[in-house]
Design a protein that fits this description.
The complex is a heterodimer of chains A (203) and B (179).
Chain A: E1 7-16, H1 23-33, E2 37-38, E3 45-51, E4 67-68, E5 71-80, H2 85-103, H3 110-125, E6 131-140, E7 145-148, H4 153-167, E8 170-173, H5 176-183, H6 187-195
Antiparallel strand pairs in A: 1-7, 1-8, 2-3, 3-5, 4-5, 5-6, 6-7
Chain B: H1 3-9, H2 12-27, E1 31-34, E2 38-51, E3 60-64, H3 67-70, H4 72-78, E4 82-92, E5 95-102, E6 107-112, H5 121-125, H6 129-157, H7 160-177
Antiparallel strand pairs in B: 1-2, 2-3, 2-4, 4-5, 5-6
The chains are: A alpha+beta (203), B alpha+beta (179).
Chain lengths: 203, 179
């Protein structure tokens, strides 16, 4: 599973910012406050938060189980519910017909239609099984680097948001230019790097 | 410059790195010597995507198959395309790593490390921490190899040697490989 699999996907992040106060107290407090919870609001997301990297049903982290050597090992669990479009359409047609009969009008306004659609989505949500996604995150606290187990833009946006919310630290994707900046220790070298333009490799 | 600007304007750096790495590996039968550091064996495997990174228009070519198919990538290089994504193998001492490396994001797909040792009884006692740390160590070793190659490239790229020696040699390699 995840990072322990033979084949993994990795997005490498640098970590920007500084933790105020006792490092491990802030980390522990942040994880516990942002552990996986069910969400009871409108929208497709019905649960979000950190779980154990070994067990996506464990959001307790007993005995600071997220701690592995110098690493903080977590998984971000995202539960979503999506009502199948055709099921929604069937119900929308049925309910629209009923509304038109009741109000004795020819058609619903676009806002009435949108309202009805949102209401039906929420009503039908309870009849659909959620989809559960789990993405591993390993934070090397010594190097200030984190490895995330997905390249998906949506998953990355979620983990970047959740990390910020949890630790008040920013995850920055270590794209080549930013990694190059880190690898060059001399300021003069970094200035040359900044001014680089693409080279034509055409013979 | 904010992140989005860097991503857009400096994407060429990752693509030039991968293109240069192909040249370097091809020239020396896969043996890439990082001066003063180490020797790595770098092989380009069975998948490569090239595109015109420095223009607005998206013109991509994806190659799959063996070395002869990948050689078609040289024709794409001649058209001005650069490598955006490639499956490579990197071997240092006994450890072999394979991955799909993406130029723009510097992300790693299907990253395979050497296998971790089967857990003995002690791993149960430490809640799997031993296996985890071994895997993390191997992942970091693989990434350090990539970083060592990238650092070698970046230092060359900002030096005068790039324009005077490396780039002309790279262009010549493309030209000669196609004749």
């Amino acid at each position: 599973m995840g990072f322990l699999s033979r084949s993994v996907s990795i997005m490498r992040y640098g970590i920007r910012g500084k933790i105020e106060g006792s490092f491990w107290d802030v980390v522990d407090d942040g994880i516990m406050k942002n552990a996986f919870r069910e969400i009871d609001t409108s929208g497709e997301e019905v649960g979000l938060g950190w779980v154990s990297i070994d067990d996506f049903t464990d959001n307790q982290f007993k005995g600071t189980s997220y701690l592995r050597g110098n690493y903080v090992a977590l998984a971000l669990r995202v539960d979503t519910v999506k009502v199948p479009p055709r099921i929604l359409e069937v119900n929308l047609k049925k309910e629209s017909k009923k509304l038109l009969e009741e109000s004795r009008t020819q058609r619903l306004s676009s806002s009435q239609r949108r309202e009805l659609k949102d209401r039906l989505k929420e009503k039908l949500k309870s009849q659909v099984f959620p989809s559960i996604q789990v993405f591993d995150l390993i934070w090397d606290t010594t190097k200030g680097v984190a490895y995330f187990g997905s390249h998906s833009i949506k998953a990355r946006e979620r983990v970047e948001y959740q990390f910020k919310k949890t630790f008040e630290l920013t995850l920055i994707p270590l794209i080549p230019y930013l990694r190059a900046e880190e690898l060059l220790s001399e300021k003069s070298d970094r200035l040359i790097l900044e001014k680089l333009k693409p080279s034509s490799m055409v013979p | 410059m904010d992140f989005i600007d860097i991503l857009r304007e400096k994407a060429f750096l990752g693509r030039e790195f991968l293109t240069w790495l192909w040249f370097k590996s091809n020239q020396s039968g896969g043996r890439v010597e990082i001066p003063g550091k180490k020797v790595l064996e770098v092989f380009f495997l069975d998948r490569m995507t090239l595109d015109l990174s420095d223009t607005e228009s998206l013109q991509m070519v994806t190659l799959k198959g063996g070395q002869s198919e990948l050689r078609e990538g040289l024709a794409a290089l001649k058209e001005g395309k650069k490598i955006e994504e490639v499956r490579i193998s990197i071997r240092a001492t006994e450890n072999d790593f394979t991955m799909v490396l993406k130029g723009t994001w510097f992300s790693f797909g299907s990253f395979r490390t050497p296998p971790i040792l089967p857990a003995d009884g002690s791993d149960v006692d430490d809640g799997g921490e031993g296996s985890f740390l071994e895997k993390a160590y191997l992942l970091e070793e693989g990434l350090e190899n990539i970083d060592a190659l990238f650092e070698y490239f970046v230092k060359l790229r900002i030096s005068e040697e790039w324009e005077n020696i490396e780039l002309p040699a790279l262009r010549k390699w493309i030209e000669n490989s196609l004749t």
